Amino acid sequence: MRPHLVCVGGEDHALRIPFLMEVRERGFQITAFSTCDGASFLRHGIAHRRYGFDRFSSGSGKSGTIRMLRKLMAELRPDIVQSFDTKPNLLAPLAARGQVPVVRTINGLGWTFSSLEPRALALRPIFCGLQWLASLWTAATVFQNLDDQAFFERYRLLGCSDKRLIAGSGIDISAFAAARHLGPPPARMREEFGLQSAEVVMFVGRLTRQKGVPTLLKSVPKVLSKRPDARFLLIGPWQSEGPFAVDESEIRRLGPEIVVLGKRQDVPSLLGMADVFAFPTEYREGVPRVLLEAGLAGLPIVASRMPGCTDVVQDEWNGYLVAPRDSDALADRIVDLLSDRERAKAMGARTAALVRERFALPGVVEQYCDLYRSVLAAQARGGLAHSASADRVAKRRLGEARR
Predict the structure, then answer these.
(1) Per-residue model confidence (pLDDT) at position 2
(2) Helices (H), 102-204
């Protein structure tokens, strides 16, 4: 009988459908839990269950979400649970409570450990406490970069769980190439958006302050002063981003040099229009998928010197790294790439080769499946012990922590 894997994620969980299909090809039964409607999963024959939480809230509703996840797990009785994203990584182990082994993937530390706002600073000890608590019922923790692994080790947030370093969630190279081939040619798309002879600087991601959009906007006048034909194309969700969204007025005041497309499903084709990919994020990322896609498109990249970005971009080899929030440095590097097309082309080619070598989906999935088999084998040998015993250990540790 095939082992049953439940994979828990948030509203962007559908992006992991290629990952789940590849895991299924390796002999696992798959059910996805997400906060979206699930239609994308069902189109690919992946069973789906919906649960809910507010990703902008810091506390309310979590107990209800935990109960919902616990009920779903009790109903489906999976052999192993995989979680992605900050809140699912906390909620899934607390819902499982040792009844089923949980593998959590730390794909970045997000706003709490990236922002310098007082609220974020105040939440950091709470976040660490919750991660420690979740570790009591976590069989293994996967890190996408060494910075996050070092952070968890420094603050002892791993508990007794195993740890692995697996670079990203993988990218389906053949599917990306097929999407580009089936889409309109770049020249036609440039004409559609009025960018025929423009030098296109592209950003893909949530249009939020934490993703560095204000820094990119501040760089625009300096870039235009040296490259007047440059145009900036912003792709990603906007109105859905609540308090984190960039104000529309900040974008509109810069005039027609900024083109906002919002959320799109044809990013592989759109990347074909670009000359430079800019990603000035302020987040501690895992391994940003958009950098892998930009790399496969052969684009030179200017990114922030932040965890995750530094796992893809090596400064002056396949792109440039700049300090977060440094709009002048960002502008200078964009101008450098637009001014030296031969060097920019060579950098893009290096990134494409790097992505194929390190981040191709089959190799990443094989590492995950090896981990799943290891966790299941440990359970069969009694590695997780009896759930009641594990629960008693967790309660004792909690009692010691309170004293």
Answers:
(1) 93
(2) 118-135, 146-154, 173-182, 186-192
Distances (CA, A) of 330 to 313, 320, 335: 14, 9, 9
Q: What is the model's pLDDT at position 255?
A: 86
Of residues 254, 207, 257, the one with CA closest to residue 229:
257
- Are the C-beta atoms of residues 307 and 148 closer than 8 Å to each other? yes
Signed CA dihedral, 345, 348, 354, 355: sign only:
negative
Mean pLDDT by groups of 10 residues along the chain of 403 residues: 94 92 97 93 96 62 85 96 94 93 91 81 89 93 93 89 90 94 93 94 94 96 97 87 77 88 92 97 91 96 95 96 97 98 97 96 97 94 54 52 48
pTM: 0.87
Residue for token pair 């189109």: 43
What CA–CA distance (Å, rounded) separates 351 from 337? 15
Helix, strand, coil fractions of the chain, as percent rounded to 5? 50, 15, 35
Measured between alpha carbons, how far is residue 14 from residues 8, 245, 256 in Å?
11, 22, 33
The whole-number pLDDT of residue 391 equals 53
- Among the listed residues 375, 182, 205, the one whose alpha carbon sits nearest the alpha carbon of residue 280: 205
Burial degree of 17 (CB within 10 A; 0-12, 13-18, 19+): middle
* Domains, in order of start, for the chain: 4-170+360-385 (3.40.50.2000), 175-358 (3.40.50.2000)
C-alpha distances out from residue 281 to 275, 285, 294, Å: 19, 8, 15
Q: Report the alpha-carbon distance of residue 222 to residue 251 in Å, rounded.
A: 16
